[in-house]
From TrEMBL:
GO terms for molecular function: catalytic activity; FAD binding. Signal peptide: none annotated. Keywords: FAD, Flavoprotein. Residues 12-187 form the FAD-binding PCMH-type domain. It comes from Couchioplanes caeruleus subsp. caeruleus. This is FAD-linked oxidase.
């Protein structure tokens, strides 16, 4: 078992840790977390470290559990389109040949566990589903060291507690994910991206036209830098003939052209120290959301109703305006990351209807409140 004194870089959102442990197996992780529980240590899980600054800083921090040794593919059942992967595996390292795990991460270096725990799902979520939809089973180590498993390697498993749904988006506050079983999809033989452009006022009509074409896109992404026009990029996948036909129809309705994936595709619009906000909205209300903040750089999935914004000026007022607009649009505005002085001045999470339920889940999984304490909504 590895359990070492922390060094300079072992910091989470400005809070230095005292120890770092890097288990290589679920059993080792269980022993480490049992020992941490006995000593009442506050624990934060670290995967690729790409989203450690998201959410609020932990109220206290003793031990970082680093997942880099918990890596590799445990199983690839190609005939069943299923894989079991250890949580510390970088998403970029996964290669299933003619099959794929259709989970896009906006940040290079992200691990499987980190992507699931932060609930990040990129452009292709529209067609393949979000992280939580791709998970069919999960192994976790609970804060007291108990190993728990749910789901299985069959897609239609209905038994037991759905840990995948709870742990997706839990920000490491419920326990350590050690393995995930995912459904895979065949790699489509052909793909094409069609790009078009419209002023904000006309983007609603453009998106409606794309929908009316019924081309079954794998992704519909939008990007607007500052007050410029909105770029719309639509990905279609399938057989060569089908893709050609669907791309031609999209070129007409977008008055655009087929090209390469644009450089902004699937990336977040803020720089490393910037203020990053996740916006959700009912699909029909997305155009009004874009119009509500004409000066803010916004990018994301118009097809799934999840956008990301870089707020760079007049920060508290702009966040308040975005929050009002998203509430009107049937969604939420969550500040994912911000420098410390901004965190002091804004409500990172905004109103959360299911807080009581989330508190009960937290109390059940982590009664000592030692896992990333305070990082999640409502001080969870
Ligand atoms: C203590 C604790 C308790 C928790 N309890 C629960 C729990 O009881 N149940 C649970 O499921 N999770 C629970 N979670 C997990 C967590 O709250 C959610 O999984 C997470 O917030 C979802 O994040 P996401 O990035 O996947 O959101 P997104 O999937 O990006 O969703 C953002 C918003 O868009 C909406 N949305 C997204 N896609 C669609 C769509 N296709 N159609 C309609 N609306 C859509 C969503 O409803 C949501 O409001 C818990 C987490 C913690 C820490």
């Amino acid at each position: 078992m590895r359990w070492q004194p922390a060094v300079d870089g072992d910091v989470v959102a400005g809070r230095p840790a005292r120890f770092v442990a890097a288990p290589a197996t679920t059993e080792e992780a269980s022993r480490i977390l049992r020992a941490a529980a006995e000593q009442d240590l506050a624990v934060v899980i670290r995967g690729g470290g790409t989203k450690l600054e998201w959410g609020m800083p932990p109220r206290r921090l003793d031990l970082i559990v680093d997942t880099h040794r918990l890596s590799g593919v445990v199983e690839h059942a190609a005939g069943d389109l299923i894989t079991v992967v250890r949580a510390g595996t970088p998403l970029g390292d996964l290669d299933f040949g003619t099959q794929q795990l259709a989970l896009d991460s906006p940040l290079p270096g992200a691990t499987v566990g980190g992507a699931v725990a932060a609930g990040t799902s990129g452009p292709r979520r529209l067609h393949y589903g979000a992280a939580r939809d791709l998970i069919i089973g999960m192994t976790v180590v609970r804060p007291d060291g108990t190993v728990a498993r749910s789901g299985g390697k069959v897609v239609k498993n209905v038994a037991g507690y759905d840990l995948g749904k709870l742990f997706a988006g839990s920000y490491g506050t419920l326990g350590l994910i050690t393995e995930c079983a995912f459904r895979l999809h065949p790699v489509p033989p052909e793909r094409a991206v069609v790009l078009g452009e419209a002023p904000v006022a006309e983007v609603g009509a453009l998106l409606a036209a794309v929908r009316a074409e019924q081309v079954v896109p794998s992704a519909v992404e939008v990007d607007r830098t500052g007050s410029g026009p909105v770029t719309v990029a639509v990905l279609v996948e399938g057989t060569a003939a089908g893709v050609r036909d669907r791309a031609a129809r999209l070129e007409k309705c977008l008055s655009g052209a087929t090209g390469d994936l644009p450089p902004w595709w699937g990336t977040l619009p803020w720089p490393p120290d910037g203020v990053g906000v996740k916006l959700t909205a009912a699909l029909s209300k997305l155009p009004s959301l874009l119009a509500a903040a004409p000066e803010v750089t916004i990018r994301g999935s118009a097809g799934a109703g999840v956008l990301y914004a870089h707020v760079s000026s007049d920060i508290p007022a702009t966040i308040a305006r975005l929050r009002t607009a998203t509430t009107r649009a049937g969604g939420h505005a969550v500040v994912l990351t911000a420098p410390e002085p901004v965190r002091q001045r804004v409500d990172m999470w905004g109103p959360v209807p299911a807080l009581d339920l989330m508190r009960r889940v937290k109390d059940r999984f982590d009664p000592g409140h030692r896992f990333a304490p305070g990082r999640f909504v409502g001080g969870i």
